[in-house]
Design brief:
By secondary structure, this protein is mainly β. It folds into two domains: 10-111, Beta Barrel (Cathepsin D, subunit A, domain 1), CATH 2.40.70.10; 175-360, Acid Proteases (Cathepsin D, subunit A, domain 1), CATH 2.40.70.10. It contains five helices and 26 strands. The strands form seven sheets. The chain has a ten-stranded mixed β-sheet with strand order 6-5-25-26-9-10-13-24-14-23. The longest helix is centred in the middle third of the chain and has 16 residues, at 248-263. The model is unreliable at 342-349 (pLDDT under 50).
Length: 396
Amino acid sequence: MSLPLPFPTCSSCDDVGMGGLSCSNCSIFNPPDPACNPNIFVCDGNPENPLGKGQSSIGGGLALIDTLALPTTTNNGSNLGPLNPITNFTFSCTSYSPQLFKALPKNITGLASFARSKLSLQTQFSTALSTPNIVSLCFPSSPKLNGPGLAFFGSNGPYYALSSSSSKIDLSKFLNYTPLIVNPIAFGDTEINYRVGTPSSHHFIGLTSIQINGKSVPINSTLLTIDQESGFGGTQISTATPYTRLESTIFKAFTELFVKEAAFSPFNLKVTAPVKPFNVCYHAPDLTITTVGPSVPIVDLVLHAKDVVWRIVGANSMVRLKNKNSVNLWCLGFVDGGVKNNLVNGKDNQKTPIVIGGKQLEDNLIQFDIASDRFGFTSSLLSRSLSCTNLALLKK
């Protein structure tokens, strides 16, 4: 009985999206994989921790090919259907090291890509199943308390949620869209520069201004556009970044205006000593809790048109900090991303002035529609008395 080779060969590295950085002999494994042919060189696959820095954030390994099965949906998206096997699925694995998993949540065993690349989940599924290259995501605010979220592949909807009265609501009807923008320069996206001379695989949108309680944050507008030669500038969406990062001058103007607006009625908030990584914190008892989180100034991200606005309410702008050491705070969940890094090996926290992070994505339905080059967002589902845990498929 002969086994199919589970490794993409060196000649096919570009085809499977590995970039052809280098190749190795699969016999490096000890004990060697039974499907390894020591006479054939295969693609290196080096998993990276997006929250890490330097060589310690890179794992050594080889690209592998296997079959992955995902549940389908039936009844117009209302029910889970049978598993659909996807053959020739490309992935990579590496041995565990504490440094490689540094800064990742506990019990994480792997990473999945939703980027603009051949290896992303949605691209591989789209290719294998002949479906549109689309992924829609809904992240719960507290997976431990509220359960998991959902990812939908290859579909524009419907995405049903159940209201408090158990009626079905199609969340796709609430999506607003803005164009996805391609950054022409990939350099600096990852520790290993796989893709010399190719566009970035990150997702960018055209943010034109930030408003707090309807007042514009003063921003150097050149930071909001992508330089076509250096790739510097613009606004990125990153599910791997915990909190939205703002370039230092933007961060200073943003926090100053937020603090000023929060000091006025009806909020009447006074800042207190912050806790890292945050710079603006308030005593928790001073804040009023509403159905959309703590009552604080509204943050609006104005996109390609004045009427296309991504609204960030208190549940997404504020982070609760409480521990046994008498820390009882609500902190503004935006962090200082530093200034432009002129070094050749600058990573994207210096390359991209604004990176919208995971906290700001919670209980929002978001959609990366790469097939149509657009990004969809609902703003907080809490404003509609819903959340990601209301998705109908999670109730089955």
